[in-house]
Write a sequence for this structure.
C-alpha cells in the first residue's frame, strides 16, 4: 500500500494528496438531501467508477471501529464515520485512489502518494474526474466554477495537501512562527487527521486555502514552492539542533528507541511520540538497522481502531499490550 512506501523527500514529507470536490447537478448537498437522493448519488457514482477498477464499500453496514480504522489511514475523513447520511467509498486496490461519496459534497476524489509527489496525485485525480464527468453532470457555474457545499472549496474544488514530519521545528519551539507565516501565505496547517486534530508525533497536515480565482496548475505550483520551503527549514533546524544539542538530542532519541524495543504496555500517544523520535534518529543516521518504510507501516498498524479491526481487541489495556508487542517485533526486539 502507498502508506508503507518511502517517497521523494520522505525524510520530511510522508505523503501527498490531491482532493477534488464535486457535486451533481440538480441534487441538494448531502446535508440537505433525502435518502432517495443520497442513494441516487451512490448509484450513479458507483456505476461510473467501478468501470475504472474501483471497488465499492458501503459505509452504512460497517461497524464504527471499522470506519474509524479506514479514517486512520486517511481513506475517508473522520466526519464520514458519523451515521445519519447514507455514505459510500470507492477504493482502488492499492488504496491510492479513494472517492468519498455523500460526505460534505456528493463526490470527493482523493489521490494519495508517498513522499512529495503532488504532480502525480493531481494527474491521477484529473483522470478520475474526467472519467466520472463523462457519466454524469456536475454542478458548475460559468463564473464561479465548481459549486461546493462549503464556499471555501468553490471554484476549482481542489485541495492539495502534504503530511509532514516536523520534529526539529517543534522541538525548537519555532513551529508556531512557521505556522503563522504559512497562514499569511494562504496555507492551512492542521493536525495529523485534519481539521480539529492535534499534531500527534510531530506530524502536521499542510494544505492550500485558495480554490477560487486561479487555475489548478497555478495553485499547485505555488503550494509546491511553499512546501519546499518548509522542507528546507525543517532540515536546516535538524542540523542546527544536532550541532548545538548533540548529546541531549541523541539521548532523547535513543531513549525513545529503548521504549519501543522494550515496552510491555504502550499507549497510542506514547507510541506516536517515540516513533517520531526514532524516525528522526533514522534520518540523522543515528539508527541504521530500521528502514523508514517500517516506521511508515507501523505508524498506522498501532492506531487504536486498526488494532481493534485486525486483532478484534476492544479492551484498552489489551490494546496497549498488543501495540507494544507489534512495535517490539517491528523494531527488532522481543521481551
Amino acid at each position: 500500500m502507498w502508506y508503507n512506501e518511502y517517497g521523494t523527500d520522505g525524510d520530511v514529507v510522508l505523503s501527498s494528496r490531491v482532493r477534488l470536490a464535486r457535486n451533481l447537478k440538480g441534487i441538494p448537498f448531502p446535508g440537505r438531501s433525502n435518502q432517495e437522493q443520497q442513494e441516487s448519488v451512490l448509484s450513479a457514482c458507483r456505476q461510473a467508477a467501478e468501470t475504472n477498477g474501483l471497488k465499492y464499500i458501503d459505509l452504512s453496514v460497517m461497524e464504527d471501529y471499522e470506519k474509524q480504522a479506514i479514517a486512520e489511514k486517511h481513506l475517508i475523513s473522520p466526519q464520514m464515520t458519523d451515521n445519519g447520511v447514507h455514505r459510500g467509498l470507492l477504493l482502488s486496490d492499492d488504496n491510492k485512489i479513494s472517492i468519498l461519496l455523500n460526505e460534505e459534497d456528493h463526490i470527493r476524489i482523493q489521490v494519495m502518494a508517498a513522499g512529495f509527489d503532488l504532480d502525480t496525485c493531481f494527474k491521477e485525480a484529473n483522470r478520475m474526474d474526467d472519467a466520472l464527468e463523462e457519466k454524469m453532470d456536475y454542478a458548475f457555474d460559468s463564473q464561479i466554477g465548481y459549486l461546493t457545499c462549503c464556499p471555501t472549496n468553490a471554484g476549482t474544488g481542489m485541495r492539495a495537501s502534504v503530511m509532514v514530519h516536523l520534529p526539529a521545528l517543534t522541538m525548537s519551539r519555532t513551529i508556531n512562527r512557521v505556522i503563522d507565516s504559512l497562514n499569511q501565505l494562504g496555507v492551512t496547517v492542521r493536525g495529523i487527521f485534519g481539521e480539529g486534530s492535534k499534531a500527534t508525533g510531530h506530524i502536521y497536515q499542510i494544505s492550500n486555502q485558495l480554490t477560487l480565482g486561479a487555475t489548478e496548475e497555478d495553485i499547485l505550483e505555488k503550494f509546491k514552492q511553499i512546501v519546499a520551503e518548509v522542507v528546507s527549514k525543517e532540515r536546516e533546524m535538524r542540523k542546527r539542533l544536532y550541532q548545538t544539542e548533540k548529546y541531549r538530542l541523541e539521548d532523547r532519541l535513543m531513549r525513545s528507541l529503548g521504549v519501543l524495543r522494550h515496552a510491555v504496555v504502550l499507549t497510542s500517544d506514547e507510541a506516536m511520540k517515540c516513533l517520531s523520535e526514532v524516525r528522526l534518529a533514522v534520518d540523522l543516521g543515528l539508527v541504521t538497522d530500521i528502514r523508514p518504510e517500517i516506521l511508515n507501516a507501523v505508524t498506522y498498524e498501532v492506531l487504536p481502531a486498526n488494532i481493534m479491526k485486525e486483532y478484534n481487541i476492544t479492551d484498552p489495556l489489551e490494546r496497549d499490550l498488543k501495540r507494544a508487542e507489534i512495535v517490539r517485533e517491528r523494531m527488532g526486539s522481543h521481551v
In short: The chain has two domains: 2-236, 246-330. The CA atoms of residues 105 and 149 lie 6 Å apart.
